UniProtKB/TrEMBL annotation:
Residues 28-40 have a biased composition (Low complexity). It comes from the Eukaryota. This is F-box domain-containing protein. Residues 1-42 are annotated as: Disordered.
Length: 507
């Protein structure tokens, strides 16, 4: 960590002698400007100089120690430097446990990680016991050998981690096993408002191991204390390493005997009292609505949820695909190394039940302000190629980017091979006018001319109707057919169940 002044940037901290000279010059200048005679005895001016020095010190330390980023080798320095009022200045602490190649085995590396985390949490607890109660944001990052891991039962801290009552936000970034352990630590924190979990669902893990991880993670989510916080936010990012490889090989992440994904169901149960939920993972429909075989299942209700963002993989946890290939002659060819898999067309038998569960969930979110349901196709550089979004009045629609070659039907294979550009935009630079911003907006941004079923469309049109009312603007964008269709639904045009009695306008 080094000298504390280094964290404030590239500025050089003045030495003690320089500070003394500066204070003497400042004091002399102030005395001469006010017409006062300076005393020959330096001791009589000491209090005045000390006041200047203390003000300067507080100003610098407030900025320097507000946000710190440290590693495991700097924990002792932190304990020695962070004393007195400096501890109360700390608001955001980032701790990174790097992959130390000095460890001979993964077990030794894991034990070193446990010792470092235990020391850090114990240090924060000692500060809390001394009266430091400022709200703290803690970010834990750790690097490991991604292709190696231990089962959840093989890992554990030597003693239970203490409770931090001032922990406001916790972000954990690493591999599956350690992230699950630190999620258990999060479940013990009474005042935790925001939990962010980022880890890689590594495709080289065996099916049995991946299933064990998902079950362990689901059990941990059931104990998260965020359920008690009406203003809580939960973010889960289970990064899909080598998703293209998984998509082509059709790997699965849960064992075949499971009727539904326990991780998706646990996220739904944990989210019922949240205000914001963001998830990126392999998911099935139980993230929105319980499976009929799910024990103690009941209709969910999200009274406080205002922001919902779901990024689901093109593969379900059971290995079924939500999208199929383009049935054209150039499917399977690599066009200048751009497309590695061409499955882009929704499969109704799988996607429709998923969308139906999502639509029912939206009807149970009376406070919803915006949602985005997205799926990224496993291409090199593709993102958000399937997107259904809703925005309340006053909230602008987030652009769903498309980065794939122009695959128009009137182009030949030779023309496609010569095409070098990318479409990195939607059809409109400005997705809505200032006038449209005053109304509720529902947008379907898809690759093909796919459209939801009537029942799904009815339910999604009701998003925000009870809270905001007014006109609904429904927009379809098809990148394949290069079409944009806009329809308007006024309140009197919608029946109580969301079915349109008539269509006000179409362009």
């Amino acid at each position: 960590m080094g000298d504390p002044g280094e964290n404030a940037g590239s500025r050089e901290m003045p030495q003690a002698g320089q500070i003394s000279d500066f204070e003497e010059e400042t004091g002399a200048a102030e005395a001469s400007s006010s017409g006062q005679q300076t005393s020959a005895n330096p001791a009589t001016r000491f209090a005045h100089y000390a006041t200047i020095s203390e003000s300067w010190k507080n100003a610098i330390e407030t900025f320097t120690f507000r946000k710190l980023s440290i590693s495991e080798d700097e924990l002792t320095d932190v304990a020695n430097i962070m004393t007195g009022r400096r501890r109360s200045y700390l608001v955001h602490l980032t701790f990174e446990c790097k992959n130390n190649r000095d460890y001979k085995s993964l077990k030794d590396e894991t034990e070193g990680f446990f010792r470092a985390v235990e020391f850090l949490i114990g240090l924060l607890k000692s500060w809390q016991d001394d009266g430091v109660q400022n709200q703290l944001k803690l970010k834990l990052k750790f690097r490991t050998r991604r292709h190696k891991t231990l089962r959840p039962g093989q890992l554990g801290f030597r003693r239970p981690l203490p409770v931090l009552s001032n922990l406001h936000k916790l972000c954990v970034q690493g591999d599956n096993s350690r992230c699950i352990l630190l999620a258990e630590f999060a479940a013990l924190q009474p005042n935790l408002q925001h939990l962010n979990l980022v880890f890689t669902d590594w495709y080289r893990y065996s099916l049995t191991l991946r299933d064990v991880y998902r079950v362990a993670f689901a059990e941990t989510l059931a104990r998260i204390q965020l359920q008690r916080q009406p203003t809580a936010r939960l973010t889960i990012d289970m990064c899909h390493a080598r998703e293209t490889t998984e998509f082509r090989s059709r790997q699965i992440v849960i064992t075949p005997e499971r009727l539904y994904d326990p991780c998706s169901a646990a996220i739904r149960s944990c989210s019922l009292n949240l205000t914001s939920l963001r998830v990126n993972a392999f998911l099935d429909s139980t993230i929105f609505w319980p499976h009929e075989k799910e024990p103690n299942a009941r209709s969910p209700f999200w009274p406080h949820l205002r922001t919902l963002e779901i990024m689901f993989s093109g593969l379900s946890p059971s290995g079924e695909r939500y999208f199929q290939d383009i049935s054209d002659r150039f499917y399977g060819r690599r066009m200048r190394g751009v497309i590695s898999d061409g499955r882009q067309i929704p499969i109704p038998e799988l996607l429709d039940p998923f969308m139906a569960s999502f639509a029912k969930a939206v009807r149970s979110m009376p406070s919803i302000d915006q949602f985005r349901l997205m799926s990224s196709f496993p291409w090199d550089g593709a993102a958000n190629a399937f997107c259904v979004s809703y925005c309340a009045p006053g909230i602008r629609t987030v652009k769903c980017m498309h980065t794939y070659p122009c695959l128009a039907r009137d182009r030949t294979v030779e023309e496609l091979r010569q095409y070098r550009g990318y479409i990195g935009r939607c059809f409109d630079r400005k997705l809505e006018s200032d006038e449209e911003l005053l109304f509720r907006r529902l947008t379907y941004d898809v690759f093909t001319g796919w459209s939801p079923s009537e029942e799904v469309a009815w339910s999604l049109r009701c998003a925000g109707q009870e809270k905001y009312g007014g006109r609904l603007i429904e927009t379809f964008r098809s990148q394949w057919e290069r079409k944009k269709t806009v329809e308007y639904f006024d309140p009197e045009d919608l029946l109580e169940d969301g079915r349109p009695a008539k269509r006000a306008k179409k362009c």
